[in-house]
Specification:
By secondary structure, the chain is mainly alpha-helical. It contains 7 helices and no strands. The protein is 76% helix and 0% strand. The longest helix is centred in the middle third of the chain and has 27 residues. The two termini are 19 Å apart.
Length: 153
Amino acid sequence: MTKKRNLRIELIRSKMADIEESVSLVEANLPPSFEEFSELGLVKDGIYKRMEFSIESIIDILSIINSDLRLSIPEDEEDVVENLGLNGILTQNMVDKVRRMKGFRNIIVHRYGRIDDLLAYKILTENLKDFGEFIESIEQFLEESSARTKKLD
């Protein structure tokens, strides 16, 4: 019989704190207009790197949950996201948001230096709140999971 591993809650919360810190830095440095954003130089590069780091932290969190709950052996990141949706850990809406985040991360990583700053600015100004929604959904999952574990004890 395979023993179910406990969730690495402290690691998950540490990664969520990293995301909150990065998003806060992005919000503090994101100017109110695209024109100002396009002139930021190294600050703009820092914004892109913080977004890349935050999105990778989201994937890490989802991978930790998938692994700790022994839900599946995923072939790639998409399998992890899909699996957590199928198991009710993420809503379909959040699955879609994480997919869009991953798409944005791929643009940042693979087209660095040729990023469409206007598109990136639009994504940033319209979707930064998604990071907070993700953290809330994972926090709710952790609380529910903790409550279930206490009932079993």
